[in-house]
């Protein structure tokens, strides 16, 4: 069985379309846009006939910046930085994936996510090795780690009508149009020649 960490954003939806995992796992960790992300992932998974599961562990008190609705940490490299976020999410989703019997857990990390330490190839390699060492049966993969968002959408072949479910806003359940997530969303659709509005 193969699983994917489903954020409900463009990247995880595109990877899900491309790789067709058996199950998508959404984690509500206390992020401001949790409900919209859940709804987006559920709708996209329904369109792909992929099982959609969700877990909730409120870590909002530990967050920083846009996603937590809190002042950014003094060491934050970008406004949406949340300390150890991908490590947290992969660990929580991995715990659930093990329970389901999954052997691999995919994440929608891109080449352009390298400004976050946990979006780099070396992080994926190390977290995969750590999880495999600890439990012996689960590895982590990032199929799009060498692609940018436009290349991923193009490579995956995800239809516009499925990708339209994606929620990319970092600040809430309604797209603000101004955060880095919204801007990336609009720029990707524009680069693809799709109407972003």
UniProtKB/TrEMBL annotation:
<dbReference type="GO" id="GO:0008616">
    <property type="term" value="P:tRNA queuosine(34) biosynthetic process"/>
</dbReference>
<keyword id="KW-0547">Nucleotide-binding</keyword>
<dbReference type="GO" id="GO:0016874">
    <property type="term" value="F:ligase activity"/>
</dbReference>
<comment type="similarity">
    <text>Belongs to the QueC family.</text>
</comment>
<dbReference type="GO" id="GO:0046872">
    <property type="term" value="F:metal ion binding"/>
</dbReference>
<keyword id="KW-0479">Metal-binding</keyword>
<keyword id="KW-0436">Ligase</keyword>
<dbReference type="GO" id="GO:0005524">
    <property type="term" value="F:ATP binding"/>
</dbReference>
<keyword id="KW-0067">ATP-binding</keyword>
<protein>
    <recommendedName>
        <fullName>7-cyano-7-deazaguanine synthase</fullName>
        <ecNumber>6.3.4.20</ecNumber>
    </recommendedName>
</protein>
<dbReference type="Pfam" id="PF06508">
    <property type="entry name" value="QueC"/>
</dbReference>
<dbReference type="InterPro" id="IPR018317">
    <property type="entry name" value="QueC"/>
</dbReference>
<dbReference type="InterPro" id="IPR014729">
    <property type="entry name" value="Rossmann-like_a/b/a_fold"/>
</dbReference>
<comment type="pathway">
    <text>Purine metabolism; 7-cyano-7-deazaguanine biosynthesis.</text>
</comment>
<keyword id="KW-0862">Zinc</keyword>
<keyword id="KW-0671">Queuosine biosynthesis</keyword>
